[in-house]
## 1
Amino acid sequence: MSENKEIIFKVENLRTWFPITKGAFKKVVGHVKAVDNVSLEVYKGETLGIVGESGCGKSTFGKTLMMLEKATGGQVLFNYDGEFRDITKFNKDEMFEFRKKVQMVFQDPYSALNPQKKIYTSFEEPLIVHGMKDQAQREARMQEVLKMVNIQPDYLMRYPHEFSGGQRQRLCIARALEVMPEVLICDEPVSALDVSIQAQVLNLMKDIQKELNLTYLFIAHDLSVVQYMSDRIVVMYLGKIVEVADSRALYDEPLHPYTRALLSAIPVPDIHNTKKRQVLEGEVPSPIHKPSGCAFHNRCPHCMEICKQVDPELAVQNTENGHMVACHLYAQAQEKTQPEQAAEQTV
Amino acid sequence: MSEAKTMSIKEQNKGAATSLMKKNIRKFLRNKLAVFGLVVVALMTIACVVAFIGGIDFRTPDMANMRAAPNSAHMFGTDTIGRDLLARVLVGGCYSIFIGVFCAVASNVLGAVLGAIAGYFGGKIDALLVRLSELFQAFPQLVLVMMLVAMLKTRGLGNLLLIFVITGWMTTFRMVRNEFMSLKGETYVKVCEAFGMSKSNVMFKQILPNVMTPIIVSTTTNVAYFILQEASLSFIGLGVADSTPTWGNILNAAKNLQVVQNQWWIWVFPGLAISLFVLAINFLGDGLRDVLDAKQQ
């Protein structure tokens, strides 16, 4: 499905570690491994969903792709019209230009607009910074993006507190679109909104994507939202990717035990469906002291001896749709895992 | 077409701005004490400035009328060497108010800039600046003034201004630093960084407007604080040189018990001027706080 698509982001062994210091001399005693050896490809025009529970590093991953957090290691290659350049090594000017290519929509629309400034000013500033000197031109662009999010241009005169959450998030999306980015990183864009407004914003985002041929990186913890939005989904656990699959494939046929547990947590509005929830035992281990071997082994219902020692590699499981999983269950003979998987499905 | 729309947006922009301003002014006018403060501050300032510019004679002693009680020729009476007290209070007010306003503005600007830098960058710069502010706070102002006077061998206006500014920025610094530390975590700051805005732009154009209210309020109240500081320093004879009248300098004459007991007008009028002005400034500051605080709107 996605083989002949153009790659826009190529992430290789990306690490974002935060040092933990101790004592008067700030001795580094450890690291919070928020993003740990993540490799990933993002295709042009797709929506890549990133899911995982709180603290698994999905937001940090998004911020690292924008270089709002410094990467500790690895590469992030961005496609400049066919030429891949490593954004982690960009200098100030190159970074500034890169800002026009990739923009971000943040989680909290209530603090994303400067409360002291009119929307007009908040919208004008990025354009001025990026060298749009002519005021008429700026206003034309502002009206253009506002039209995309269905907000009247005369609302520009208002202050942020005069808007509802949904309107504010739409304004934030519009502002991000002002510089005509190719990629929009959406960091839980609807989790702060009412469910009724969520659908409205999500549909709007889909429409905009179609219109502008945008690439979305959609970070969320709400699985139904991600399923609705995404073409492909990445499941993260403790800073690592455990599974990558097409949206349909992931929901029909989840491979990793963690993904299965996540999916079983989606409520189904059907009283006859007495599905058994697969409840995970224990807590997420600390990202400072990760368990040896597979990070998930202490909560995994299928834990084997090898899981405690060897960290599984992310490997392609299904060459047809590019389904990838990092689990020892699938590294072994295919036939051994199939029945087990079937048993899991019936539950 | 687009030109017409541009015009309309700009026009409306102006309209909205003035309406907000009007709303704030109305709110301010409803506060009786604040209006009283504003009126008193304005009247006293105007009177002092007019007298100063008009070249009122505050130097020439009236030898025939030394220590004269208030009368038709000298409304506030005359001081121990026969100088007209009204003229001295007016001209002295000019100096006092200038000292208060200049020091308040300068120390607040210094404090705000350093606070912005410390709060926004954090880390080592922050630690350094905080230690520096603690150092200044721990150092007695009086000793600094005496040191400077001893070193420069003159008692001048400049010394006083310098000392007040370098010993007065810490409160604002701490306030602005704390505000910056909490505001830099706000999403709109991240948005601006994501747009690639420069650090100074983010600091001074994005975050600082949100800290302006407490800065303005603290500047107003600091004016009163510095006027009092100057008065007390001049009273004990460490302030401005004797030739320059300030409210504190005039009061200096009241160090003499003879004067306190027999010539009440020499200390009542400058004392009254100080108290009234400081009180009015404080009312004004409170009123401004009520109007400008966005959280209450």
## 2
Amino acid sequence: MHSSLSTPTVVEHFFRHEYGKLVASLSWRVGVGYSEDVEDAVQFALMAALETWTKSGQPDNPSAWLFRVASNHLIGGLRQKANRSRLLEQNKIAEPDASDSAADAFFENEMRDDLLRMLFACCDEAIPRISQLVLALKVLCGFDVREISIRLFTSEANVYKRLTRARRRLRELEFSPGELNAEQFESRLPSVHTVLYLLFTEGYQSSHAELAIRRELCGEAIRLATLLAEHPVGDTPETFALLALMHLHRARLTARQDRFGGLLLLEEQDRELWDPHEIQTGLNWLARSSIGDVFSRYHAEAGIAAEHCLAPSFEKTRWGKVVECYALLESVAPSAIHRLNRAIAIAEWKDPAAGLAILDEFEPPTWLAGSYQWAAVLADLHRRNGSLEIADRNRKLACDAAPSPAVRKLLERRLQIDRR
Amino acid sequence: MSKQNYLCVVRSSSGTCEKPSPAEMEESYAKFNAWKEKFQDRIVDLGGALESERKIVTSEGVTDGPFVEAKEIIGGYMLISAENMAEAAVIVQESPACWSSSTNVEIRKCTAP
């Protein structure tokens, strides 16, 4: 997958990304409801490229070539379905004139706009969140059903079902070009953020051993979020903060695993392996996000990630600042898991008893009380506080509830009673 | 010793193979370009695909089949140059024609005056 393509114009993931751009562009021209016909046409064009380019070489503007072949195939296919001929008359597929570099740039811009519009179309309120994610992976990132099922840890049948339902919903809506209005763009922006956040988290948190696969999802999330940040429909402080947190987390992605694919704790990670370029990019976005009076959950999370990236060592981390960010996160996005994280930071900042104190105050919701995170934090804080019996009980609970062997191994190592 | 031309005929078990995903296609394209670069001077003619329609011509006239069993179809051809059969086999082994387990390639030396 990483062997470089010999022609410089065809960059990595060209086929996959071109697939997304073409599906978005053509769907917009004939109507989002025809996404299946559109996807068939795009698949056809890519197959044709594979055959033709390998034999006669690559055309000067590969994107325009693919657009032409796909739209011709689409028109041919739709024409055969007589009842759609009227639709075609209304929506002629204008062939972009790609004869000079200015036209090339225009073509690129138009394709990018279409991709973003498609992203907003996928985030329709009537489509369940996970299905929005599946739809985005299919039509915007160019993954097929099998590839999505691997990445989201679900069955192919489940992915297929979600796609079918989401497509039906899009068909019901019968978008015609340009139908999403400014209000809809604005009201759907938070959903778009959530889908991109989920996409990133899937790559970052998943217990998938294959680093390349996880990296790829993080990369897709960053690619789409960057497009969003550079476009008037999405250039808001929240988008910038979201991008900041993605880059700051990705900076540590490689260092989170040991040579055998096991997970490493923050304090065990080799900080030399953190990517300084990613950290800088993240900080730049963070600076851009600090305008206006919006403080979103993404700002808080990016702030926490930045504190960790900038700390010279685990001990020298400015835990007070981290605690502050978690408190802010709790106030803008109340969740018991944020409180749990604040307790950990407080334990590092002051002492384990202070961390336990804020957990004593409240009753965790059942989803958290039964989770390995809750038990693991209690085990760790109680052990360090000298309550070995409670610590050991929670250690067992945490190990039993671990979602993957990698996490279980990590817990066993971290929660040893006689540690340190 | 001068190089000889070898005709490579690509056979595949016929039928409906799954459509490749964009990621698989870009992988094929990358592999193909790498292969082409590596053996650039050895590829005489990249050939191409062969259509499935066929006829047999004899002195008796033109008839349909009997062709190779229906399960096996000839999908494409190419012409390469190599020192000998062993070298030709190495080039073909690394070629796109051999990446799938459902294809095989027959190599024949072309004797030309």
